[in-house]
Every structure is written in C-alpha cells, then in structure tokens.
Write the structure tokens for this entry.
Amino acid sequence: MKSKLFSPIQIRGLTLKNRVVLSPMLTYEADHGFPTDWHLAHYGKFAVGGVGLVFVESTKVDPRGCTTPKDLGLWKDEFIAPLARITSFVKSRGSAIGIQLGHSGRKARNSLPWQGRLPLGPEQKGVDHDEEWELIGPSAIAASAKSSTPKEMTLSDIRAQIDMWGAATLRAHKAGFDVLEIHCAHGYLLHQFLSARANQRTDQYGGSMENRMRFTLETVEHVRALWPAQKPLFVRISAIDEAGWSIEESVVLCKRLKALGVDVIDCSAGGMAEYSIASGENRPGYGYQVPHAETVKRDAGILTMAVGLIIHADQAESILQNNQADLVAIGREMLHNPNWLMDAADKLNEEGIFDLVAENYGYWLEKRASTGFKRKTSTWLHGIDH
Ligand SMILES: Cc1cc2nc3c(=O)[nH]c(=O)nc-3n(C[C@H](O)[C@H](O)[C@H](O)COP(=O)(O)O)c2cc1C
C-alpha cells in the first residue's frame, strides 16, 4: 500500500506530490539581500531529491528585519528576477516552492552563527546599501542583556510595516512562488507583538490578547487579500514559548487565522527567551513539537505541518497516519541527506523509489539496483560482497 508520506495532497489550487517539506532554514549566503548561485544550487538540490514542497528560508520584508547581514530580502523589485530563477528551476523538477517572509524586529542585527551569533551594535551598517540599521519592536525592551534596545514602533510604523509585508507578498507572487509562509514564531517581530513579555504597549496593539494579536491578524489579512486565492498561505507559530504563551492561546490564534484564509499552521515553538532550535544543551526527543501540531489540528480544525527532529521515515509516516499533522517539515536531516526521500521510500517499501529523484540519477540507480549489489554494507573492503 502506498504510504501517506508519498501520497499527494491538494491545498487550494496546488497539489503537492508528497507530504515532505523542506523546512525554511537560513543559509546566510545572500549578497545585500540578493540570492546568489548558492541559493540556486542549495534549493535546486532538494527539488532534484524529490521534496514535495521546498521552502526558501526566512526572507525579509524590510532590511531592518534581517537577522544577519547575509539574509535574503524581498523589500524591493530587483529581487524578483533572481528569485524567479530559483522558482523556475525547482518547479521544472516537479516540486512546489514556498517562501517564508519574516522580520526579526528586536532580534535583528546579529553576526553569523559560526561567528558566535552575537548581537551587533548600531555601528553595524545595514544590509541594503550600508544604511543605518535600526532595531524596531513593539516596545523599547531588548531581546537579551547583550542586545540593543529597539525603537518602539509608532502607529504609522505599524501601518508601514503591514504595507511592506503586502508589497513583499506581491513580489513573491511575481517571482513564481506557489506557497507563502508568514513567520510568526521564534521570537521575531510578529511573535514579539503576541508576547506579553516583549509587548508592553498601552495602545490598541498591546495589553489584552486581542490587542497583542492585532498586528499579526492585520498583517495576515492584508497578505491574504494580495496573495492569489488559488495559492496556499501558511503561518509558522511558536505554539508555546518560554515567556508564558500557551498552546490554548495558540488554538485561539489559529482559529482566527483560519477565518482569515490561512491554510496551514506550521507548528514550531520557543525563541522568545532562548534559541529555538534543539541542540546539544537543549535536547528534547524525536518529534518534540509534534504534539503541538496535533493539538492545533484537532482543536483549531486546520491543516498543520509538524517540525522538529523528524528524522526517520517510519516516524514521519506515523505522524501522518496518527492524524497528528498533514505535512512533515524536515530541516537538518535534509541537510544531512538531500536525497532523504529516496531512502525513506526504500524503508517504507514504496514501489519505484528511483522515480522519486531526477531521471539523471534514477536511471543509473535503477540499473545498479538490478545487479543486486547491496548498498548498506561495509564488507566491500574485504572483498566479500563483490
Ligand atoms: C541553519 C538553520 C536555519 C534556520 N532558519 C530558519 C528560518 O529561516 N525560518 C524558520 O522558521 N526556522 C528556521 N530554522 C528552524 C527550522 O526550520 C526547523 O524548525 C528546526 O531546525 C527544527 O527542525 P529539524 O530538527 O528538522 O532541523 C532554522 C534551523 C536551522 C538549523
């Protein structure tokens, strides 16, 4: 029987050929916000590997919102053509391509991860053309003891920001993206507005939960109005965070997002106080965020995408079989093995596993398989299996 993982799914006018999604991941290779050959090679390889939906990393709607000087941008029309080169290649291989739009707010302006991911000061020149790099946020509260204090956004800053998300949405459509995701997680700007810790405003954008949700809901409403009706809209949330945001509040938010025409909630967590990606010091179990996707799916009645330490084929399949999510997003495991799908299909006993990858590879791998040589053995050194 065909697995659920390898079954297509239709969302609005888009059919994904399987349920495997490349999770959005910053690659820190942009040049003043422009994609480079790196991005074509990087995203292209996952399409060649058969991923159903390839997400391009968090791409900023405003140069001030870049997490680092090497983030991708979508704040001006000049970005459309180089991004279109990537969407066109990915789609030519039968994969769909999405883009995550983001703004890091008070968490912008850092060095690269391998340079320590340190908050940079106001002397750091901006990403676009060495302009001043201003930090903005809902309130003048720094993200950490080491970070600079952001400027509290005025009401006209908020209006201008919503317009920037809208303009970036139109550019994403022109660049040929199939799916748009709004980054509302990991302690970045929209999440900062949701959080009673980061947002201590006394106007209509702060205080009650309704007021803290207002900026997100207005942004989503504006984006949905501009994003074509046949194209799916995703929102990534931190379903819970370290500053008291609860899964119950997420369910309330997601019901509202659904009413505004959001199709899929991408369920991540954290990032308000700590780094959001599970690593050595922060070591949860396999699929540690899957329960959030399950709760949101059940209680808000909306499609969900699960993410976080989903590594194994049978693990991914069981998430779908158990109705915990409708899509599985895979991040670092895909960096480890861009041909993860072929391996997963083999493990799930799918037919035609070599059809999953480009014929340039599949044709030869099929021939090799027909010879009966085994792959997973180290005995060749000893001449046993030849
Ligand atoms: C290098 C790197 C960059 C990331 N960049 C983003 C990003 O741009 N947007 C986002 O929402 N999450 C980002 N994440 C989080 C991933 O999308 C994913 O949620 C996280 O890595 C957990 O999934 P995994 O265990 O499959 O890697 C990033 C993670 C990594 C490792």
